[in-house]
Amino acid sequence: MIKKNKIRFAEVLVITILVMVVIAVASVISPPAKAGLWDDLSNMGAPTVEAQVYLVETSGWNVRIYQWNPPSMPGFTCMFGAGEGKGGMTCVQNPSL
After folding, report:
1. Per mean pLDDT, which range of 22-31, 66-75, 85-94 is the poorest?
2. How far apart are CA 60 and CA 63, in angstroms?
3. N or C terminus of the chain with fewer C-beta within 10 Å?
4. What's the rounded Cα separation, in Å, for the pair 21 and 13?
5. Helix (H, G, I), strand (E, B) or coil at 10
6. Which of 78, 84, 77, 79 is nearest to 63 (CA)?
7. Whole-structure pTM over 0.70, yes or no?
8. Which DSSP letter does residue 97 get?
């Protein structure tokens, strides 16, 4: 009886370790895990554009506004607003540029 329980325990232990190894390997090679690395590699060498950041207090929400002048669109100012799970962007002509 004791020998049978030891064999059963060993089988469960081996299966548990194999499952943990498969999960660990899958998490290392899965695309979501590489998203940060892909962003870093795909944006390597891209110029950085200075942006102004504003926090706008609204009723119960804190909205962040990013504003910049894109070099590829002279005479335009772009703004991106980010809130709780939502965001939006617009670019408008800026005659003062």
Report:
1. 22-31
2. 10
3. N
4. 12
5. helix
6. 84
7. no
8. -
> Which H/E stretch holds residue 7?
helix 2-29
Stretch (H or E) spanning 5 = helix 2-29
Burial class (CB in 10 A: 0-12, 13-18, 19+), 84: exposed
Q: What angle do CA 73, 49, 92 make, to 5 degrees?
A: 35
Residue 91 tokens, joined: 């670019």
| Cα 12 from Cα 19, distance rounded (Å) | 11
Report how far residue 38's alpha carbon sits from residue 65's, in angstroms, rounded to the nearest whole number. 26
Average pLDDT, the chain: 82
